[in-house]
Write a structure and sequence with these properties.
Number of helices: 13
Largest sheet: 4 strands, mixed
Shape: elongated
Mean pLDDT: 79
């Protein structure tokens, strides 16, 4: 930092200038983009000592043209304070930087309260820049301790009792588990999807990590109903009721031009009156597609019941 640069910073801040968030992030990205680690940053105490010895000696030749009244060591304090305030986000205390952060310990500690890691929250909590957190978690991902899911979001594999479903309403606030994943959970389908399938009123997207994939399909806001909350150790998520999961699956299949076959679904545990009632709130194509399957299953139930009655009569 040249003395005239220090004076420019002082003059701007004295006039009320404030470094906005975008410029702060730019400075942060510059530091991290150049691969500057914590150990490469001069401790504040040493930095201020250098500023006093180097910059003050430059005052006569560098600052005279800026301010004729700027003289002597005793008047260098405002310059030093302006710089210290400007770079306070990056000047870690000597005590913190003497000991490198043990990120395995950090991750294990965070696993006690959440299965999800957010780089911005960790940066605030441990008083380090977000880019440094991202670099640290990237190294831990190579050790398979965490898994990058989305911008600023990691799944913590040290949260042994955690569930990847903790991510459902973090990645998309207005969303719930449905389609193949819900059908499998309720025993309506025997297919085991590798992807956690969800529907959302927000932008559809597939989030893919090393082992975790969560797929969000878009659905109309007028069809955003028919789900219930479920809790996990660390939080909660939303999941469709069995009847709604069936109708979501049919509706989106028809939307994609391929009406799904229903003969492999087990309607035994399905509330058929509720399913018909829900189906009436969908477009007619969905209602007409599910109706024959319900008639067939209802007929099969009656035949089984009739056969049991005949056997009892015999």
């Amino acid at each position: 930092m040249k003395a005239r640069d220090a004076f420019d910073v002082y003059r701007l801040r004295k006039s009320g200038g404030v470094l906005d968030e975008q410029l702060q992030n730019h400075l942060e990205d510059t530091l991290m983009g150049d691969g500057i680690e914590a150990t490469d940053i001069t401790p504040p105490r040493e930095l201020l000592r250098l500023m006093r010895s180097v910059a003050v000696s430059c005052v006569p030749c560098c600052l005279r043209k800026y301010s004729s009244c700027w003289r002597g060591k005793e008047q260098f304090g405002p310059l030093r304070d302006a710089l210290r305030d400007l770079y306070r986000r990056w000047l870690w205390s000597e005590e913190k930087r003497k000991t490198n952060m043990d990120w395995v310990t950090v991750i294990r500690k965070e696993a006690q309260t959440s299965s999800i890691l957010r780089t911005d929250e960790l940066a605030r909590k441990y008083a380090i820049v977000p880019a440094a957190v991202t670099q640290a978690l990237a190294r831990q991902e190579q050790r398979e301790l965490v898994e990058h899911i989305s911008n600023k979001i990691y799944y913590n594999w040290l949260a042994l009792d955690g569930s990847t479903r903790d991510l459902v309403n973090v990645l998309r606030e207005d969303a719930y588990v449905s389609l193949e994943s819900a059908l499998r959970e309720y025993g309506i389908s025997t297919q085991s999807p590798r992807t956690l399938t969800c529907v959302t009123t927000e932008r559809p997207k597939d989030f893919k990590g090393r082992t975790i994939t969560i797929s969000y399909r878009s659905i109309s806001p007028r069809l955003y109903w028919g789900f219930v909350p479920k809790t996990t150790r660390y939080g909660s998520y939303l999941i469709a009721e069995p009847e709604k999961a069936i109708l979501d699956w049919i509706y989106l299949g028809i939307q994609n031009g391929a009406a799904p076959a229903l003969d492999e679904l087990d309607f035994g545990s399905v509330d058929r009156p509720k399913l018909l009632n829900y189906a009436r709130r969908f477009p007619s194509s969905t209602y007409l597609h599910v109706l024959p399957a319900l008639v067939e299953t209802a007929g099969a139930v009656k035949l089984v019941g009739a056969g049991a009655g005949a056997g009892a009569a015999d």
